[in-house]
TrEMBL record:
Pfam families: Cupin_2 (PF07883). Coiled coil: none annotated. The lineage of its organism: Bacteria, Pseudomonadati, Pseudomonadota, Gammaproteobacteria, Cellvibrionales. This is Cupin domain-containing protein. Residues 118-186 form the Cupin type-2 domain.
Length: 208
């Protein structure tokens, strides 16, 4: 009956839809059949006012669309669970402010350039006073490091296994007060031609 209605150019679209709903009622609770309604209604498309698209043409249109519809009906959660088994995502840090509480500045104009740097600080060693003109973040792979803002005296201890949004354009230095080397992985979101780190000159005032 469905084919009869679909092949009759005088059949209104509303009749086709009603007929599908009535005879598809036995599958009314099946999301697959509900989703396939648009595909089986494709024959209601007319060429001018002469007749429906030929039965063979419609089948050619339906065939590639049916697998696509079935794919789209797959539950997203189940799909992800099946394909992400053994995979874990964890956001270590995400913020619009640095660890000192200041809003991140706009990145300089120019060609973006990303850099990843590993820094190892021996026990008792001190990083020279410096600043970063570009946005950056740090992950502490091992040990810890006490960071001090030279102008404000604020301090923060970077702990192993944690990530931080670093300060930008602020003079600061770090000291390893632990008993083991501290290893930092620093991620710079910079601009080509702009240094990621500027060290304070000896003639400038520096915190001890």
């Amino acid at each position: 009956q469905i084919r009869y209605f679909l092949s009759n150019p005088q059949t209104p679209d509303s009749v086709i839809t009603h007929h599908w709903r009535v005879h598809g009622g036995r599958h009314g609770n099946c999301s697959v059949f509900r989703a396939l309604i648009p595909i089986f209604l494709l024959p209601s498309i007319r060429r001018s006012n002469k007749s429906l698209i030929a039965q063979g043409d419609i089948m050619n249109i339906r065939k590639p669309l049916i697998p696509l519809a079935l794919l789209l009906l797959l539950p997203v959660g189940a799909f992800l669970q099946e394909n992400m088994r053994g995979v874990k995502f964890e956001t270590l840090v995400s913020s619009t402010k640095d660890w000192a509480g200041d809003t991140l500045s706009q990145a300089p104009a120019g060609q973006p350039e990303l850099s990843i740097v590993r820094v190892t600080i021996a026990p008792g060693a001190r990083l020279p006073t410096h600043k970063h003109p570009v946005l950056n973040s740090v992950y502490v792979a091992k040990g810890s490091l006490k960071v001090t803002l030279a102008d404000r005296g604020e301090t923060l201890t970077l702990s192993e296994g944690k990530a931080y949004i670093e300060v930008t354009d602020k003079w600061h230095f770090g000291r390893n007060e632990g008993d083991e080397p501290a290893t930092l992985i620093i991620f710079y979101s910079g601009v080509k031609g702009v240094p990621t780190t500027i060290f304070q000159k000896e003639t400038e005032t520096s915190a001890p």
